[in-house]
Each structure stands twice: as structure tokens, then as C-alpha cells.
Specification:
Layout: E1 3-5, H1 19-30, H2 45-48, H3 51-67, E2 70-74, H4 81-91, E3 100-104, H5 110-120, E4 125-131, H6 137-154, E5 162-166, H7 172-180, E6 183-186, H8 200-208, H9 213-226, H10 236-249, E7 254-259, H11 265-279, E8 287-292, H12 301-306, E9 311-318, H13 345-363, E10 368-373, H14 378-397, H15 410-420
Parallel strand pairs: 2-3, 2-4, 4-5, 5-6, 7-8, 7-9, 9-10
Antiparallel strand pairs: 1-10
Helix pairs in contact: 3-8, 4-8, 4-11, 9-14, 10-14, 11-14
Bound molecules: 6-O-phosphono-beta-D-fructofuranose.
């Protein structure tokens, strides 16, 4: 369970004053009468998911682990961020695991695409193309290149090495997958892209990375209870939602998501899409940004400490590191570092976090929200998903906005299609 500490947030209003509004919005969520109510399948997904499909995901992942060196995840936004966040958080950045997971379909960069294609050309490859709409251009462009490569490399066998995760009935990708005979997994109608890491969208790549998806679903399931109570005293996700609302009332328009683990950086990217696409509409919302400390204390730290007071920080601390290291002694001590000899490096990381909190809160006057997760396990990932899902749904509905659509994303697409000459 994620622990929440608001003692460093210096809220000028009382969280409990929002209890009535929270109860009323929670009722709308539970009874599926809120804005965007056709996209709240994630609320009960941990109970409702298709057990047969789940077993097929595990089987498919096992096969892929046996017959590939590289697994290419071809998708963008919610169709890759969650999987990448989970894989990097749980396995670490330099996991010696096969197959290697590579991401495509998330850019128009020709340099990137060409480099990936060159890197995979002599390796055994399996491709998972993921798109809920089945029409996203970045993904479709990359997939055509991948498809031709796979057909040239494997001939008829290519179709057994391409897996499509898409809508059950609609979209170009669904039509193509059916025609080609690809194995297909379904993205449920009532779960939007940025909530879809808990569906086959995330689960297949995560399972291919050797991660226990039963554990992930267990964390998600437990989160339904732990973040399910409308009583603010009993629900840290809703308290976090209200604290964000209060801070925005005070004029803080930027939320800086802080973590101290480089393997959590993609969690921050995933969180940015989840919060930004959900809340940033109707001329409202908090701009979600992120930093990885202490690394970024040496870049953005200066701004946080002394720059314009536009932001608050939300720290996601990890209680137990994946691996700890004991700092070595050195007789000569020429670098003067012996004061740390025999100490845990994770302890040093936590001291850096404590010192930073004091600096930013006390001297810098920056409100800080503290979240702590127990570890970087699959269970904790699933649990964290439910925490942030519930929080952003609540906080956006408190703004009278629909948390589950993203109409603003279409504007660039229209312009781009015109420029590209699409009919
Ligand atoms: O899965 P799709 O339909 O390809 O969409 C990918 C991403 O693009 C968006 O629709 C924005 O264009 C996101 O909401 C979504 O996660």
C-alpha cells in the first residue's frame, strides 16, 4: 500500500472540508454515472479480467522467451509507456534477461527507426504491435517497416512472430491482424490507453520480461480495497487528490514528480501521460513534470530551490531498494570518502532525500507531498496503478472535467495529416 504524508505540504485548507464532494464523486464513479463513465472498466478490472486470455498471455510470453532474442513493443503513449515503466522499475535498467525489449512505434524519428532496424536485423525477433484505436500514425508507420522486415526474414513464419494487441472489433490493425492470422489480444472497450497497462497492452510485454503478472494483478486487486473507501481518513489516494486540488487553489500550477531511483524514470513518464491527458483540459489542470534526484538536483535543483514559486513536489519514495550496496573502505582515503565506509548506499540515497526535503520545504518554501511505496516489485507496481488511477479520476472530476478523454491530442494530428497529404 502507498503511504501518504501531507505534513510537508503546508495546505492552507483542511482536506476534510472536501469530504462531502469526495463522497458524491466516489458515488458517481462506483455507480458509473460520472463524466466519461464508459471508460471506468479499470475500477473493477482486477475482478473482471478474462482468466482465459490471461492464461493465453502467460503461454504466449513463455513461447516468446524461448524463441526470441529481441521482443519489439510497437506502440505509443498508453500503448507502451506502462509496459516500459513496469519492466524498468521491476527488473532494473541493466537486467541480464532474455529477450531484450525494444520500443518502436513511438516516434517519427528516422534516425531512431533506422538504428533499431539495424540493431535487430541479425537477431531472432518477435513483434507486439499495440494500438487501441488501431490507427495511430507513429505506430502504423513503424509497424509497416517491421512487418516487411519480418516477412523478408521469416517468410510465412512471420505471422507466428507478430502479435497484435488492439480493439476487439474496430480499427485497421484489427482488420490486418485477422487477415494475416496474427495472435491477437484485446484491449477492453471501457479502459482507455493511459489506464491500459493492467490489460494485455502491458501484461504481455511485462510477462515477456519475466515478471510475475499474477503478483501485479494481486497488487492491483488489493489496491481496489485500499483506495476504495470514500472516507478521506481511510483513503490515501483521495487525500492526495484533494491535496492537489488545494495546492492548485493556492496557485501552484506545476506538480513535480520526484523519485530517487533511475529505474523509476519511465514510471514518471507513464504518470505524466496519466495525469496530463486526464486533467489538462477545459483550460484547467496541473502541469505534470518530473525529475530524478539526486541526479537532477544538479540541473533543476536550482530552480526548485530559488526559482519562481509555481510548483509543488510529489515525492515517490521507495522503502526497500532492489539491491543495496555497502560502501567500501579505502586505507589511503585520498578521496576523503571514508566517512561513508561500511554504510549502505541506499541509506545515503535516503539521507540525500531527507536533506533535499528540508532544503526545498524549509528554505525554498516549496510544498512537498510524500508518497512511499514498499519496494519496486510487481505487486507494488499493480498497487501503485490503482493509487494513481483513483487519485487522478477524483481530482479531475473535482474540476468538472472528463478524466477519460483527450480531445486536445487530435489537433496536431489534423494539421499533420493535412501536411502529410492524408486523404
Ligand atoms: O493505442 P492507440 O490508439 O494507438 O493510442 C496511443 C495513444 O495515443 C493517444 O490516443 C493520444 O493520441 C493516447 O491517449 C494513447 O495512449
Amino acid at each position: 500500500m502507498i503511504q501518504l504524508d501531507l505534513n510537508h505540504a503546508h495546505l492552507k485548507e483542511n482536506v476534510k472540508d472536501y469530504q462531502e464532494q469526495v463522497v458524491s464523486i466516489d458515488k458517481q464513479l462506483v455507480s458509473k454515472t460520472c463524466l466519461g463513465n464508459d471508460f471506468i472498466g479499470w475500477m473493477t478490472w482486477a475482478n473482471d479480467y478474462d482468466r482465459e486470455e490471461f492464461a493465453r498471455i502467460k503461454e504466449c510470453a513463455k513461447k516468446i522467451r524461448e524463441n526470441s532474442e529481441v521482443f519489439v513493443v510497437c506502440g505509443i503513449g498508453g500503448s507502451y509507456l506502462g509496459a516500459r515503466a513496469a519492466i524498468e522499475m521491476i527488473n532494473g535498467l541493466y537486467a541480464d534477461k532474455k529477450p531484450e525489449i525494444i520500443y518502436m512505434g513511438n516516434t517519427f524519428s528516422s534516425s531512431y527507426i533506422a538504428q533499431v532496424m539495424d540493431y535487430i536485423k541479425d537477431k531472432e525477433v518477435v513483434v507486439n504491435v499495440i494500438s487501441k484505436s488501431g490507427t495511430t500514425t507513429e505506430t502504423a508507420l513503424a509497424f509497416r517497416i517491421l512487418k516487411q522486415f519480418m516477412e523478408e526474414k521469416y517468410g510465412d513464419e512471420a505471422k507466428n512472430r507478430i502479435i497484435a494487441t488492439t480493439d476487439k472489433a474496430r480499427g485497421t490493425l484489427k482488420t490486418l491482424a485477422t487477415k494475416e492470422g496474427y495472435e491477437t489480444f484485446v484491449i477492453p472497450d471501457d479502459i482507455g490507453g493511459r489506464f491500459s497497462v493492467i490489460t494485455p497492452v502491458g501484461l504481455l510485454p511485462i510477462a515477456v520480461a519475466g515478471i510475475d503478472i499474477d503478483e501485479l494483478m494481486k497488487g492491483l486487486h488489493d489496491g481496489m480495497g485500499e483506495y476504495g473507501d470514500p472516507d478521506l481518513d481511510k483513503n490515501p489516494a483521495y487525500r492526495y487528490a484533494v491535496a492537489r486540488r488545494i495546492l492548485q487553489n493556492e496557485g501552484y500550477d506545476v506538480e513535480l514528480f520526484v523519485n530517487y531511483e533511475p529505474q523509476m524514470q519511465m514510471v514518471a513518464e507513464w504518470w505524466k501521460q496519466l495525469f496530463g491527458e486526464s486533467e489538462g483540459k477545459d483550460g484547467k489542470g496541473i502541469l505534470p513534470d518530473s525529475v530524478c534526484f539526486s541526479t537532477d538536483l544538479h540541473s533543476l535543483g536550482q530552480f526548485v530551490q530559488e526559482g519562481k514559486k509555481v510548483l509543488f513536489e510529489t515525492n515517490l519514495y521507495v522503502d526497500k531498494p532492489m539491491i543495496d550496496v555497502t560502501f567500501p573502505n579505502d586505507e589511503a582515503n585520498e578521496d576523503g570518502m571514508n566517512y561513508l565506509a561500511g554504510k549502505s548506499v541506499d541509506w545515503a540515497n535516503k539521507m540525500a532525500a531527507q536533506g533535499t526535503l528540508m532544503a526545498h520545504e524549509e528554505t525554498g518554501g516549496v510544498p512537498n507531498i510524500l508518497l512511499t511505496m514498499p519496494d519496486m516489485s510487481a505487486y507494488s507496481f499493480g498497487n501503485m496503478c490503482m493509487f494513481f488511477f483513483k487519485a487522478i479520476a477524483m481530482t479531475t472530476l473535482m474540476n468538472d472535467s472528463n478524466p477519460f478523454n483527450q480531445p486536445g491530442v487530435e489537433v496536431y494530428k489534423k494539421n499533420m495529416f493535412k501536411l502529410l497529404g492524408k486523404e
